[in-house]
Design brief:
Layout: H1 3-13, E1 23-29, E2 46-47, E3 50-51, H2 52-63, E4 68-73, H3 77-84, E5 90-94, H4 101-111, E6 120-125, H5 133-146, E7 150-156, E8 168-171, E9 184-188, H6 190-194, E10 202-206, E11 209-213, H7 215-219, E12 223-232, H8 233-239, H9 257-263, E13 268-272, H10 285-303, E14 307-309, E15 315-317, H11 319-330, E16 337-339, E17 343-350, E18 356-357, E19 362-369, E20 374-375, E21 380-382, E22 389-391, E23 396-397, E24 402-405, E25 407-409, E26 414-415, E27 419-423, E28 429-431, E29 436-438, E30 441-444, E31 447-448, E32 453-455, E33 458-460, E34 463-464, E35 477-478
Parallel strand pairs: 1-4, 1-6, 4-5, 7-13, 14-16, 15-17, 16-18, 17-19, 18-20, 19-21, 19-22, 20-23, 21-24, 22-25, 23-26, 24-27, 25-28, 26-29, 27-30, 28-31, 29-32, 30-33, 31-34, 32-35
Antiparallel strand pairs: 2-3, 6-12, 7-12, 8-9, 10-11
Helix pairs in contact: 1-3, 2-5
């Protein structure tokens, strides 16, 4: 996409930064992620229904208590920008050429106002989609309390050291009885450690003292770099230009700031994340699937005592709905909600008590359920964002039906199999209480009065009255269909089909 076009999109979606925020989060989302083998930007791959960059942005915003957010975009910039959307205290910055993590931070700082230099700066990779705001909050507190100029968020590798391909955190040894104990000397990449001579100690200088490490000692360091950093803004701005591309890739790396800070007498610390899963990134679809499974397990663990799940490994409930269910429980509301295997829930919902969503029900949009509503297997309920679908108490919608749009269904209704109900903004559908609809029927933009019985009908913008026969029973409305249109374009093929070819010639 041409830079001018990206610039116009950025101007459209940028919000206003807050000079009093005290912190700014820079989200690195410019790369494509070639190893994931997808036409889609790596940052737009979803974890539990949300793009990973959006999840990182949300965690940073909440964990840093209203910080400014700067998202660095590059490849597929427009898609990333529009997926995240416009928000207060959030801006996008375009990295036209992907020249390393250090360069991305440099581009971000160059594009932001001078007051950012006085704030704390936090840097996050855009692919750590399991990051929780509690981990960000803890990291912020650790950085604040440490008095360091720079801090690295780390993880701990628990497997075979020979299979650890992360960058190792090399610290001043703890047995060093001076103020530098525990400070970070360097982040060493696994491939660089592997290339060392196993018989020669590897020297590292720090604050005028030389520390020696064997190749094996370095390999066995379990603490690894997660790509999450915190900085005091002033020294970061003063030193970011000192990065150089003197490496095999010819790129500017944010990790090289550790050496620069150390040489200038600035302190660099590190703290381990609450859980490794919080800082798990992905470079392939297998790891992405694992991350999605971990998130699903989290949702299940939060809801398992509130909701009956037929299959804890096969369901989807979006974050907003899960949070609402949890809050309802906190408020003392008991739902007795039952979720079948493969149920998909994504939107804004109101649930009454005793709702049952059977296997494969697919529900999106804004749906309000009354009490004791039963939605059978394979039913699809959906609305556009500005519409609402309501279903009254004790109503049953049977297998594979479709109900969508601006529609209201009353209490004690039975919508049996083979029914499609739709309401639009101009022609909403309103179905009264105790209505029966069965057979192959399509209802659009109609008003169905209470107690009506409809079978095998196509009703478009109609009002259906309830009529009683001489015995006092409801008289069914059957086989109502509209007048045919376009009959001049329809003909019988006949018995001799050899003269017909497909596709037809012009």
């Amino acid at each position: 996409m041409p830079k001018q076009d990206v610039t116009e999109v950025i101007q459209q979606y940028n919000g206003e930064l807050n000079p009093e925020a005290g912190a700014t989060a820079i989200i690195l989302a410019a790369g494509h992620g070639k190893r994931i083998k997808s036409q889609r930007s790596k940052m737009l791959h979803k974890i539990w229904g949300k793009a990973t960059v959006e999840r990182v942005s949300n965690a940073a915003r909440k964990g840093l208590s209203g910080a400014n957010v700067c998202i660095v975009v590059g490849i597929k910039a427009e898609s990333v920008i529009k997926t995240v959307g416009k928000r207060d205290q959030q801006v996008f910055v375009y990295q036209e050429e992907q020249n390393g993590t250090g360069h991305a931070v440099q581009v971000a700082l160059d594009a932001m106002p001078e007051f950012i230099q006085k704030q704390k700066i936090y840097v996050f990779p855009g692919d750590i989609g399991l990051l929780r705001d509690s981990t960000v909050k803890s990291f912020r507190e650790d950085f604040r309390d440490s008095g360091k100029d720079m801090m690295v968020l780390t993880g701990r590798y628990e497997g075979d050291p020979a299979e650890n391909y992360y960058g190792r955190i090399v610290r001043v040894p703890d047995d060093d009885q001076n103020k530098n104990a525990g400070n970070v000397i360097k982040i060493m990449e696994s491939k660089d450690i592997q290339a060392l001579d196993s018989d020669e100690p590897y020297p590292l200088e720090y604050d005028g003292k030389t520390y020696e490490f064997s190749r094996q000692e370095l390999l066995e360091i379990p603490e690894f770099n997660t790509g999450v950093f915190a900085f005091n803004g002033v020294p970061l701005n003063e030193n970011i230009a000192n990065l150089d591309a003197n490496n095999v890739q010819g790129e500017l790396y944010i990790t090289d700031l550790i050496g620069i800070f150390n040489r200038k007498g600035l302190s660099v610390g590190a703290v381990t994340a609450l859980e490794n899963r919080d800082v798990l990134g992905f470079n392939n679809k297998a790891v992405l699937k694992e991350m999605n499974s971990l998130y699903q397990q989290d949702v299940y663990n939060q809801l398992k005592n509130l909701v009956r799940f037929r299959d804890p490994d096969d369901f989807f409930i979006n974050d907003e709905t899960a949070e609402k269910l949890i809050q309802m429980d906190v408020n003392g509301t008991t739902l007795d909600l039952t979720i079948g295997k493969g149920v998909y829930i994504n939107g804004k919902f109101e649930f009454g008590a005793g709702v049952e969503l059977k296997d494969g029900a697919h529900i999106t949009g804004n749906v309000e359920f009354g009490n004791n509503v039963t939605i059978h297997k394979g039913v699809e309920l959906s609305t556009y964002p500005d519409q609402t679908l309501t279903i009254g108490d004790n109503t049953i919608i049977f297998q594979d039906n479709i109900v969508k749009g601006n529609t209201s269904i009353g209490s004690q209704c039975r919508i049996e199999s083979g029914v499609n109900v739709t309401g639009s903004d101009r022609y909403p559908t309103r179905i009264g209480n105790r209505v029966m609809i069965k057979g192959t029927s399509y209802i659009f933009g109609s008003i169905i009065e209470e107690n009506a019985w409809i079978e095998h009908c196509i009703l478009k913008a109609k009002r259906v009255h309830c009529h009683y026969d001489r015995n006092g029973d409801v008289a069914p409305v059957r086989y109502v269909i509209p007048q045919p249109e376009g009959l001049d374009d329809v003909e019988s093929i006949g018995d001799d089909r050899e003269e017909y070819t497909w596709p037809p010639s012009n």
